[in-house]
Write a structure and sequence with these properties.
193 residues; alpha/beta; Rossmann fold; 5-stranded parallel sheet; 8 helices; globular; binds adenosine monophosphate
Length: 193
């Protein structure tokens, strides 16, 4: 299995690039944001419990997302590998993920970290908010809260994987195809042919 984390702040292009990467490399896409939004859409108890936190731009509790990922790993036993998008977002989540993968005899091969300036992130998120249904993209204060959560809790996840020499930084500004090619170069250096 080849397991990849696509890492970066909100608005760095993880969703867009994930779609292209899963189609090229045949990976299973696991986005905790998408999974949580589906729970909200069908109004499950979990969805109702996390709705206001997400609307405020705060992270939902570690136990909830770890359990969602645990089930998703169990439900997809025969894939080539996983692309994690928006997870892990805290050091506790990263440690839990490493443990779950090692129980399955696998590990994270690579963390691709997209780097985008804050002013560009805000511009992209506000623009997405004008066309998407996402409540957390329309208000500049909520966007600022999400970026602050990223700085406070999520940036440390890259440090966790840096210790194992698994992080590759990629410039996340430019054309979608140019960024995609840089990500593919990073993968091809690591991935067995
Ligand atoms: P995203 O679609 O990845 O931007 O996530 C949207 C929102 O879902 C975040 O602002 C959080 O409220 C919540 N969320 C998604 N993934 C996680 C995670 N791994 N840990 C905690 N909260 C998450």
């Amino acid at each position: 299995m080849f397991n990849l984390i696509l890492f970066g702040p909100p608005g760095s292009g993880k969703g867009t690039q994930s779609e292209k990467l899963i189609s090229k490399y045949g990976l299973k896409h696991l986005s905790t944001g998408d999974l949580l939004r589906s729970e909200i859409a069908v109004q499950t108890p979990l969805g109702l419990a996390v709705k206001s936190l997400m609307a405020e731009g705060k992270l939902v509790p570690d136990e909830i997302v770890i359990e969602m990922i645990n089930s998703a790993l169990d439900n997809n036993p025969h894939v080539n590998g996983f692309l994690f998008d928006g997870f892990p977002r805290t050091t506790a989540q990263a440690e839990a993920l490493d443990k779950l993968l090692s129980q399955k005899g696998t590990e994270i091969a690579l963390v691709l970290a997209l780097q985008v300036r804050q002013q560009e992130l805000v511009k992209r998120l506000l623009s997405r908010g004008r066309t998407s249904e996402r409540a957390d993209d329309v208000n500049e204060d909520i966007i600022a809260a999400r970026i602050a959560e990223y700085e406070k809790k999520t940036a440390a996840v890259a440090e966790h994987y840096k210790e194992f020499g698994k992080v590759k930084y990629v410039q996340g500004e430019g054309s979608i195809d140019d960024i995609f090619n840089l990500l593919c170069e990073g993968i091809d250096e690591k991935k067995p042919a």
